Amino acid sequence: MKQSIKKNAIKKNRWLIALSAIGIHLAVGSIYAFSVMIIPLSQTFSSSTSDIKMGFKLSLLVIGLLMAFLGTYSEKVGPKVCGLSATFFFGIAIIGSGIACQLQSLPLFYLFFGLFGGIGLGLGYIAPISTLVKWFPDRRGLATGLAIMGFGFSSLIFGPLMQYLFDTVGAPNTFYVLGFIYIMLMTLSSFYIAPPPPHFYLT
């Protein structure tokens, strides 16, 4: 049967939900601009590029190990709490990475960027996608594409910004500035994102 929207049950605009999902993905997706960080960080920590890349590899390892748990957590607490949790962990990851740079402690960078960054990225990836699919059952492909688009645009937006900041204010301040931007973007997005009301779509 043809699906129709029960409009009087809608309390939020699903296109603004999509925009909120993109906002979260823009922030956490910036981790994939890691290549911009390698040279400045290798200079900051006086380490080889392979040592610096280990921080990124650790974050991916954490995502892989926790993905099943993160998916269960997202469904249990809902997208808003999951998004705010992602904000908490990803914010700690970025601000903590700035502290690690300031202290020139590579192990501390692994802890913040690798462990906390991986948790934040995982939570920030899952919640928007699962929520958008529920809001767009008639356009599942579009919903997934909108969410993934955030990751693609993230590198285009934040990559040049990272490069500029590294060149002008140094590694610690770069992470502090980025951390502030990500926390604000993810917090605002998380407070709007929500699951659709019951019986949003009727057959």
Which properties best describe this structure?
80% helix, two-stranded antiparallel sheet, mainly alpha, 203 residues, 2 strands, Growth Hormone, Chain: A
Name given to the CATH architecture: Up-down Bundle
What is the radius of gyration computed over CA atoms, rounded to a whole number of angstroms?
A: 18 Å
| Molecular shape | elongated
Average predicted confidence as pLDDT: 87
Low-confidence stretches: 1-9
Q: Biggest sheet: strands, sense, closure?
A: 2 strands, antiparallel
Helix content: over 70%
Number of helices: 7
Major beta sheet, strand line-up: 1-2
Q: Which class best fits the helix and strand makeup?
A: mainly alpha
Distance between the termini: 6 Å
- The helix/strand order is EHHHHHHHE
CATH superfamily: MFS general substrate transporter like domains
- At the first level of CATH, the class is Mainly Alpha
The portion of residues forming beta strands comes to under 5%
Q: CATH fold name, please?
A: Growth Hormone, Chain: A
- For the record, the count of structural domains works out to 1
